[in-house]
Specification:
Elements lengths: L3 E2 L3 H11 L5 H19 L5 E7 L4 E7 L3 E8 L2 H9 L6 E9 L6 E7 L7 E6 L2 E2 L3 H12 L5 E8 L1 H10 L5 E6 L2 E2 L5 E2 L5 H6 L3
Parallel strand pairs: 1-10, 4-5, 4-7, 7-9, 8-9, 9-10
Antiparallel strand pairs: 2-3, 5-6, 11-12
Helix pairs in contact: 1-2, 2-3
Length: 208
């Protein structure tokens, strides 16, 4: 699946503010949620529609509405939570799942500590949310978890990625489309995206 980079001017502008090390926690949080909503708006462009009719106060109108396909938003904790918050403004009845993972600081391997998904995840269009796709270890672990739970129509939304992370996800889950706001240059020796925006979870929650 080709990786999609959404270069809408509003997304790129908000991303420029997120990257800025002087952006305070409060702004970082609201910008992350807004940017996620804008990304989801684009990523949901191909959701199926069905024809219907409604009575307006004047006459009957032929309308098109979402074809009743159910959505699931799945956050990789912690940082994915802020993406859920922004995207729920667009699709308030989506169900929400949580996958708890953190990177071991030495090995950078993902460590799993929690998982709770909608029981009917197999019937839902699923958006896996994590702002940072670095080595790709966390995303692959979360996608494995979703596959084990029966999810088969999954997209990964990340604000920033390193080429290494994209390649890792593509190799492990070639059927999963990846949607990004930007693809950065590389990882540094600590597994951080360069130039990146730093540690997303710490910047969202002020735990630097
Ligand atoms: C960050 C980020 C991703 C992961 C990406 O989370 O939110 O989940 O790192 O790195 P990877 O692609 O190399 O796996 P972190 O492990 O720092 O946990 P946190 O969100 O709880 O701080
Ligand atoms: N996780 C982050 O939050 N930032 C990075 O640059 C890499 C992993």
């Amino acid at each position: 699946m080709p990786t999609q980079i959404i270069d809408h001017p509003l997304i790129q502008h908000k991303l420029s503010l997120l990257r800025d090390a002087t952006t305070p926690v409060r702004d970082f949080r609201s910008l992350s949620a807004e940017l996620s909503m804008l990304m989801a708006f684009e990523a949901m462009r191909d959701l199926p529609l069905e024809d219907a009719e409604v009575r307006t106060p004047v006459a009957t109108a032929k309308v098109r509405r979402l074809a009743g396909k159910k959505l699931a938003l799945v956050a990789i904790l912690r940082a994915g939570l802020i993406m859920v918050e922004g995207i729920l403004d667009l699709v308030p009845s989506a169900r929400v799942g949580h996958i708890g993972l953190y990177r071991d600081p030495e090995t950078l391997a993902p460590v799993s500590y929690y998982g709770k998904l909608p029981s009917d995840i197999a019937e839902r269009d699923t958006f896996l949310l994590d702002p940072m796709l670095a080595t790709g270890g966390s995303a692959v672990a979360a996608l494995d978890h979703l596959a084990d739970a029966g999810a088969h129509n999954v997209r990964l939304l990340s604000i920033l990625a390193a080429p290494e992370g994209v390649a890792t996800v593509e190799a492990a889950h070639p059927d999963v489309p990846i949607v990004l706001a930007a693809l950065d240059e590389r990882l540094n020796e600590h597994g951080y995206i360069v130039p990146g925006l730093g540690d997303a979870g710490d910047r969202i929650y002020g735990t630097l």
